[in-house]
Amino acid sequence: MAKSNAVTNIESFAITNDIPDFLKKGSQRGAENVGSDDVIIPRIELIQALSPARNKSDPSYIPGADEGMLFNNVTRELYGPEATVVPVYYTKQYLVWKDRKQGGGTNGFRGAFMSKSDAEHAITELAEEGLEISDTAQHFVLAYHNGQWSEAVLSMAKSKLKVSKRWNSLMRLTDTDSFSRAYKLSSVIETNARNEKYHNYNITPLGFVPKDVYEQGEKLYGAISKGGVKVNQDYDDVVIEATEEF
Q1: Alpha helices in 103-155 (DSSP H)
Q2: Helix, strand or coil, per DSSP, at residue 203
């Protein structure tokens, strides 16, 4: 058998983030069997002083990550200190965590439940010391990044719940669909009861969105209402920060 002289040179072709002219937009062959159960919506998270994203020895480390920055917890992309978001759907979940001082932290997440009674039942079933329930507001949004809108979730617990309530109030004042208006999502420095500083979300109204963005939000709203989406459950930075406690 003749020996092949073929050589694979990975540097002989260029990889680009721009869609080449020869590709057909809207064609997704190879992904025909990917359904809603096979896809998760990522979360936008806020980097704190102790976030894994800032720890170079942690697998979740993101080069360039700094306190107060926003990032996508699936793609690990940094949004920077602010982002434009359009709220689409709101719900509340009850997350069960193991206390940091009893072995919790990044490995402390035990489940998300739609009612407090379900969360309490889970704690009884787990029969584990140091478990607690955290009321968590879940805001499904469209987030603008790198020139396009993408689906994401903002999880707000503990000190972030007051931001969630204010945001819900702002949405109700418009007297229109929640996905009719865009908001600036940024961070502010606050101080807890132990005089420790931490970063919290800040929401600023921007204005009404164009028709195509509104329709994209309407489509996502329909999918969520029918239970056709899942949220990424990798809660790295949502509740584990000690500095977020009151």
Answers
A1: 116-126
A2: strand
By C-alpha distance, which of 160, 166, 141, 156 is closest to 89? 141
Pairing of strands 148-157, 43-46: parallel
Helix (H, G, I), strand (E, B) or coil at 26: coil
Tell me the domain boundaries of the chain: 36-91+138-244
The two tokens of residue 77 are 């992309």
For residue 148, give both structure tokens: 């396009």
The pTM (predicted TM-score) of the whole model is 0.75
Query: What are the tokens at 100?
Result: 């940091």
d(CA 11, CA 6): 15
For residue range 41-95, list pLDDT tens digits in order: 788 999 888 888 888 888 888 998 899 999 998 888 999 999 999 999 998 888 7
Cβ distance 203 to 188 under 8 Å? no
Helices marked H in the chain — which ranges?
116-126, 161-173, 211-225
Grouping H, G, I as helix, E, B as strand and the rest as coil, residue 125 is: helix
